[in-house]
Amino acid sequence: xxxxxxxxxxxxxxxxxxxxxxxxxxxxxxxxxxxxxxxxxxxxxxxxxxxxxxxxxxxxxxxxxxxxxxxxxxxxxxxxxxxxxxxxxxxxxxxxxxxxxxxxxxxxxxxxxxxxxxxxxxx
Length: 123
Description:
Blueprint: E1 2-4, E2 23-27, H1 28-38, E3 57-60, E4 76-77, E5 81-85, E6 109-112, E7 120-122
Antiparallel strand pairs: 1-7, 2-5, 3-6, 4-5
């Protein structure tokens, strides 16, 4: 469990896509591209790519951080992205975590960024 000081500034959770026939990807570069497209029209908390405190925080849209231990989806997580490929997963997630398309076996993920000025401790 991680404890964060009051000085922490997180972005909103970004979930820019849903799993598709290939899989699911949530990545910093995609969220920054989307934020630039929003411009001044959409309000959001974000930080520039050179101010991100890595690693980025990932969760399923239901709020689960690690689902592999529970027989969940196989995925790869790097400091700046999460990738799930449907072909690597043998079993379709059970309700309510599945999609109507039979080939979609990845869960839907979201991510958020933390400002680097934040002091944090992991326990």
